[in-house]
Amino acid sequence: MDVATLVSLGLNETQARAYIAQVKHGSVTPPQLASLIGITRTNAYAVLDQLVELGLGRKQEIKKKLVYRPENPVALEQLARKSRQQALERERTVQAALPTLLNYFYTFSEQPGIKFYQGVEGIKEIYNDTLRTNKDIYVVRSPHDQDLMSLDFYIRYKERRAKQGITTHMLNSSTDTSQWNAESDKKFRIDRLPIKPQDYTSKVELSTYGDKTSIISFGEEAIGMIIESPQVAEAMRQLFALAAAGAQAAPRE
């Protein structure tokens, strides 16, 4: 057992040194501890009481003197578990506060938040982010999406998306209609606008949902990014509306 190990469990350095001194000597009085680890008597009383509060020590009075004994080191496991639970609670608190804080940040700053992803698992994480955000999606679909992702993945993704009540507004240049029709689009909450295959042949998919915009490059690159910015997202929605209006007005062959 060393100081660094105890500090990693959440103790400060003085608490760690005090606990080790207790374990080595069996019991200590505050004056003894002050001498052993080089702190003042006032601080020795304080740190020993802190160890009692942490469940790592106990206090008793013997012949009108306060004596502190260490708890079994097994108590360190309980302390580690408690620290882990507290860390998870702090993480949940941050996650709950993050949307509001980001809204303030983007309101008063022009700096967007950008995250980059790579490989199949990274691309899956972008799709999972649309589910976590739980907002309607505006997507210019690439006809090459299944060059990288399997059909089974998209089916599961569409099912989860629809179950959450997310509507997907899609510009679709794919000529393969075997996997979609009016009935399936209704089932999966897809508002699909077919466009000519030659009008969009890129391997890049563009999506906007909530305050986020994702860009996914399929094929050999398999890279993507999420831009979190209300201004960028609103611009992308307006561009989507312009593209949709142009597609609807275009003559059909």
Summarize, please.
The protein is α+β, with helices and mostly antiparallel strands and about 250 residues long.
User: What are the segments in which pLDDT stays under 50 over at least 5 consecutive residues?
Assistant: none
Largest sheet: 7 strands, mixed
Strand proportion = 15-25%
Order of the strands making up the biggest sheet: 3-9-8-7-4-5-6
Level-2 CATH architecture of the largest domain: 2-Layer Sandwich
Secondary structure tally: strands: 9
Characteristics:
single chain, 253 residues, alpha+beta, Arc Repressor Mutant, subunit A, Endonuclease, Chain A, 2 domains, seven-stranded mixed β-sheet, two-stranded antiparallel ribbon, 9 strands, 20% strand, elongated
Structural overview:
The protein is of the alpha+beta class and 253 residues long. The chain folds into 2 domains: 1-109, Winged helix-like DNA-binding domain superfamily/Winged helix DNA-binding domain (Arc Repressor Mutant, subunit A); 112-249, 2-Layer Sandwich (Endonuclease, Chain A). Helix content is 51%, strand content 20%. The protein is built from 9 helices and 9 strands. It has helices at 3-8, 13-25, 30-37, 41-53, 75-108, 119-133, 151-163, 182-187, 230-249; strands spanning 57-62, 65-70, 113-118, 137-141, 168-172, 190-194, 204-209, 212-217, 223-228. The strands form 2 sheets. The protein has a 7-stranded mixed beta sheet, with helices on both faces. A two-stranded antiparallel sheet has the order 1-2. Strand 4 (137-141), helix 7 (151-163) and strand 5 (168-172) form a beta-alpha-beta unit. The mean pLDDT is 87.
